[in-house]
Every structure is written in structure tokens, then in C-alpha cells.
Amino acid sequence: MPAPPLRLETLTGAALRPLFPALAGLRIAVFAEWPYLYAGDAASEEEYLTAYAQGDGAAAVIAFDGETPVGMATCQPMAETHAEVRSAFLKRGLDPARFCYFGESVLLREYRGRGAGVGFFAAREAHARALGLAATCFCAVVRNANDPRKPKDYVPLDAFWRKRGYTPRPDLSCVFRWREPGDDRETPHSLGFWLKDPL
Fold first, then answer.
1. In a 3-state reduction of DSSP, which class is residue 187?
2. How confident is the model at residue 3 (pLDDT cuts 50, 70, 90)?
3. How far is CA 15 from CA 20, 88, 103, in A?
4. Taking the model in full, what pTM does it have?
5. Which among 55, 59, 169, 171 has most CB atoms closer than 10 A?
């Protein structure tokens, strides 16, 4: 018998704060995996999540198993997000004010394949429409296909993203810095953008 679909809720503002510890744990656990290899910590995660709780147009879609958060996906007007993202668009003559920027989409491994990924995109696109934004986008880390750390069973999400209507834009990229497991300092990582324009 197939597992039931997870319950998804779109939350904004102060409603997110009680979930910070659980959401921080989700980000740390999932982003430690390939391809991000991100070594997070609770303090920096709470600071990151606070920006969504305080953002005027920001929202987080939470996947629940009962009352336990097991996944999350975020979005906010690009005008409110990281300067690195806005700068990448401005350099290509694209107006950040048109876009809703999708942040992370994380889901614990044991809950994958139950429709949450599709639901995350649908809920964030609905939020973008409610904000009156004409297009959506996200970025994903770019890794060398021959990187020896890549798991043998790793399947890129490109086909899933294309099925949602997103198109890669090789001319659009930005750089974020983070610490990988085992490192003692942050290093730069290149991320490429996928757009759905118009929404």
C-alpha cells in the first residue's frame, strides 16, 4: 500500500519561528548530502531563517508527517533576497522586481517520492502569483560531473525541473560561500539559474 501524501502548509512571518529548530535541522541534514556538501550550524541557520520570518513577501512551504516537519521549500520576492542573486539578473538586463526567487527545497530522504517536490513548486508558484510576480526562478550548485565524491546512484534533478516548466540559463550564475564537511573555512561555490518566465 503506497504511503499517504505529506501535508503541506504555506507559512509566513511569526508562524515560522516555533519551527526554527526543526527547519534548521532539516537544512543541515539535507544540504550535507551531495551535491551541496554544506556544513551548517544551528546559529547560522536560525539567522538565515529569520530573514524569511521577517520578509514582507517571504513564505515557507512546510511538509509535515503528522506534526513533524520533514521538508521545507522557501520563496521570496527577488527584491528582498541576496544581493548576489539580484546582481546576476541585473547584469543580464533582467528586472529583479519581476521575479519570485525560490530558495531551498529540502526533504528527508525517507519521504522522497511522495509528491512533496511537486507540491513545493505548486505552492511557491501560487504564492508568487498572489504577490503579483510574473516569473519564478531558483539556482542550483554546479558540480564537476567527474567529482569523485558524487554518489554512484545520484540522479540529477534536471528532468524534474524541466517537467515543472523551468529552463536552465547558463548565462546566469552567482557565487555563494560555504564550508564543506571537513573544511576549516568557507570556499566559493558557483550556482546556475533555472527560470520559468512567464509564470
1. strand
2. confident
3. 10, 31, 18
4. 0.96
5. 59
Check residue 103 and report its DSSP letter: E
Residue 87 three-state SS: helix
Phi and psi for 126 in degrees, rounded to 5?
-65, -40
pLDDT tens for each residue of 33-47: 999 999 999 999 999
% residues pLDDT > 90 (the chain): 97
**Cell triple for residue 167?**
529552463
Q: Which residues contact 45 (CB under 8 A, 6 or more apart)?
A: 20, 23, 24, 27, 28
68-78 exposure pattern, b = at least 16 Cβ within 10 A, e = fewer: ebbbbbbbbbb
- Domains belonging to the chain, first-starting first, are 7-196 (3.40.630.30)
Q: 135-141 and 99-107 as β-strands: parallel, antiparallel, unpaired?
A: parallel
What are 91-102's pLDDT values in tens digits?
Answer: 999 999 999 999
- Side-chain-side CA neighbours of 180 within 13 Å: the count stands at 11
Q: In this structure, which amino acid lies at residue 145?
A: A
